[in-house]
Amino acid sequence: MTPANIGVERLKKVLISDKHFNPERIEEVMKSDILGILQNYTDLKGENLNFNIEVNKFGGYHITVDATCTRLKVLGSIT
User: Fold this and answer.
1) Which residue, of 67, 68, 72, 76, is most buried by count of CB atoms within 10 Å of its CB?
2) Which are the contacts of 29, defined by CB distance < 8 A and separation ≥ 6?
3) How far is CA 75 from CA 33, 57, 63, 67, in A?
4) pTM more than 0.70
5) What's the first-to-final CA gap in the chain, in angstroms?
6) Phi/psi at 76 (5° precision)
7) Using one digit for the tens of pLDDT, what is the confidence trace for 14-47?
8) Residue 32 φ then ψ, to 5°
9) In whole angstroms, what is the distance from residue 18 CA to residue 41 CA?
10) Is residue 60 predicted with pLDDT exceeding 80?
């Protein structure tokens, strides 16, 4: 491996680790927004919402939302 390749790999690692910085505030705002949307269309069982953000090895985000609802709300018809 050449010094240039080593430098590129180090830079990739730095950029990916920088993306791992996930401020709790952003996560809480996203969780609150998603909870509000779900409450518009469902009756959630409590306000239990599991929300997780992970960064993959390529620097992309994987967001997981898990909620339990007791029923879907009936919406009026759109004409």
Assistant:
1) 67
2) none
3) 20, 41, 27, 20
4) no
5) 64
6) -65, 160
7) 766 665 555 677 888 888 899 889 988 899 886 6
8) -65, -45
9) 36
10) yes
